Amino acid sequence: MTTTIIGFPRLGEFRELKFETEKYFRNEISADDLKAFAKELRQKHWNVIKDAGIDQIPSNDFSFYDNTLDTSVLFNIIPKKVKDLDFDELEEYFALARGYQGEKGDVHALPMKKWFNTNYHYLVPQFEKTTNIQVNTTKIVDEFLEAKELGILTRPVILGPFTLLQLGQYHDGTSSADFATDLLAAYQEVFTKLAAAGAEWIQIDEPGLVLDLTAEDIARFKEFYQTLLANKNGLNVLLQTYFGDIRDIYEEVIALDFDGIGLDFVEGKETLNLITNTPFPEDKKLFAGIVNGKNIWTNNYTSTFDLLAKLPKNVVLSTSCSLLHVPYSVENEVFSDEIKQYFAFAKEKLAELVALDKTDQAAIEKNNRIFKQERITANKALQEKIAQLTDADFVRLPAFDEREALQTDLLKLPNLPTTTIGSFPQTKEVKITRGKFKRGEITQEEYDAFIAKKIDDCIAFQEKIGLDVLVHGEFERNDMVEFFGEALDGYLFSKNGWVQSYGTRGVKPPIIWGDIARSKAITVQWSKYAQSKTEQIVKGMLTGPVTILNWSFPREDISIKDSTYQLALAIQEEVLDLEANGIRIIQIDEAALREKLPLRQTDWYSEYLDWAIPAFRLVHSKVQPETQIHTHMCYSEFEDIIQAIDDMDADVISFEASRSNLALLDALNRNNFQTQVGPGVYDIHSPRIPSVEEIKQTIGKILEKIPTDKVWVNPDCGLKTRGEKETYASLENLVLAAKEVREGLVND
Ligand code: GLN
Ligand code: ZN
């Protein structure tokens, strides 16, 4: 057998590429400096992979920002507006990635979307009438040659035409069919160039194959690859898939003239069945994704050997997806050795592939030992509690209508009540003070006094401008997941466990290490304090269990459903504690609820929503009827899961609402959505201050679709990333707009 990987993290061991690129953005280094730095980094990474003993090493998995953008640029799929700026290659690339505003003109960044079921984001290819597909850059060949010079014969990676066209957005009445012929010719040209440069293999990534496919999709894929593979120029072609199985197209794929096919045995729950039912052809290599490319846990060799025994002989051992989605190395962590042995980040996963390939006895014995011993002592009481949950635990009583009437009576809020999503600007001062506290430079008392003062001012401001439901401002929180993770038992935090989210941005997901429990109140102190400062209602602010889970590295030894239920019980305790301490409205944010929605629509309910929605209900099912439960989501794309959202059985939901989502309002209306709604009336992602008139118009549009007694008025997300000045001005306008619309209603 041999070993390979699909791709390697590119930001660098300590996010060096991020910092260097940001220096370039700030004009502190030149383009040549940045390019030279990147070249060295690529070298380092190829050598790390080679020294680990991996046989086939990819290239062109490096990117300054995003591989999908690289592919768009490679094929000259560049909006005319950006082309016209007449930049050089790197400037143009970053103008596409980040937008450009300067003496040459003004262009927006390309839209960005979540990459399949990961927290990585890609830049969406834009096809226009003027798009003229041709080979436009030499990056893929250059990087191949760069490695070749080091004596490493790599396998260049490229995103395939099927997925590229599937992800694209089409303008000026164009459609994907208009571009297929030129695109295939351009891929062909890349083949020719790579073959001429001495490449033996090319890896074409087609993750789009793991989605639900229509008959037309299948026909299109076949047509594309019959054309491409008719002329391989002597190259061996690896078709690489990941993030699931290719059940809709497996038979067609193995009948095509690929030399290797990469299948995911980790997330692809049907993959083993597929190759058992229709044997994998003997004349092709099976690139078997057996080491999890997304999670950070040590591979269980015994289970992997069991799996390998069922696979054909012509296997190349690989990861389930690119290692882009895991941090660089456990070496850079300060966990004890006892803990470290359970973790495998990118570098350690290389070693795993090699150990599995070489059946390295010492490594296997060590691995067996790890999996034989008890990693953590399970929380038996908690397990029992979860096992004993009954349907009643997931149902809040009385039913919605009765609660709504009662709350309307008791809370005495005006029509169109105004509120915010929770956080207020996290100014430099807030971050610096938190940093000082964490480093022990100021005492707990000093830090608390600082937070208390921030809350005082925040409450006073909200009272002054006349908001109806107040918040404490979340000044004590770094991040909506990390904050809760740090307060709960069962979490571990890495020091350098960064994963690229988009461009130069990384996230450092906390690790769920053990059973989750809440051993102390988390938010009660500051919520209570804020409430003591005003006669008005202050909302309590929590992050929901599904979001906490989706933004953490989950365990592999128990299901994510079980971990979510553990989180739900912990947050439930917090909810009840807040209620007992006089908090009358509690918001439970589920900003990331949609994130783990399975890629195949057919799996949405059975694999996810059927437990994720109940997990949310479990959190609030035990509150008193008069306590009002809010939730918040950072997007408005839930037309397709509208019933599930209503089934969360919150009393109020706020969400992002831009011009485009009037369609959602229609859908809410059509579906008799019971939950009260706060569609964001202005976009907090921009520093613009919306005028009273604008907000009034937006509220007007909402009232055309939603009954007045169901509508709340709020911004579309938390305000923590905004400056204070624009925030204050925007909120004042929001309150004025709501008041004016209200008066209009009374007079009508
Ligand atoms: N309550 C959180 C805040 O206001 C919600 C953040 C979010 O939705 N991402 O910051
Ligand atoms: Zn949000």
Automatic annotation (TrEMBL):
Which residues of this UniProt protein bind Zn(2+) 1? 632, 634, 647, 656, 717
> Which cofactors, by name?
Zn(2+)
Tell me the gene name: metE
SUPFAM superfamilies listed in its UniProt record = UROD/MetE-like (SSF51726)
Which reaction equation describes what this protein catalyses?
Answer: 5-methyltetrahydropteroyltri-L-glutamate + L-homocysteine = tetrahydropteroyltri-L-glutamate + L-methionine
* Binding annotation for L-homocysteine: 421-423, 474, 589
> Top enzyme class of this protein?
transferase
Q: Where does Zn(2+) bind?
A: 632, 634, 656, 717
The pathway is:
Amino-acid biosynthesis; L-methionine biosynthesis via de novo pathway; L-methionine from L-homocysteine (MetE route): step 1/1
Report the function annotation for this chain: Catalyzes the transfer of a methyl group from 5-methyltetrahydrofolate to homocysteine resulting in methionine formation.
Entry protein name: 5-methyltetrahydropteroyltriglutamate--homocysteine methyltransferase
Recall the taxonomic lineage recorded for the source organism.
Bacteria, Bacillati, Bacillota, Bacilli, Lactobacillales
Cofactor binding remark: Binds 1 zinc ion per subunit. Binds 2 Zn(2+) ions per subunit.
Q: Which UniProt keywords apply?
A: Amino-acid biosynthesis, Metal-binding, Methionine biosynthesis, Methyltransferase, Repeat, Transferase, Zinc
Which family, according to the similarity comment? Answer: Belongs to the vitamin-B12 independent methionine synthase family.
Annotated positions binding L-methionine: 421-423, 474, 589
Under the heading InterPro entries, the entry gives: Cbl-indep_Met_Synth_N, Cobalamin-indep_Met_synthase, Met_Synth_C/arc, UROD/MetE-like_sf
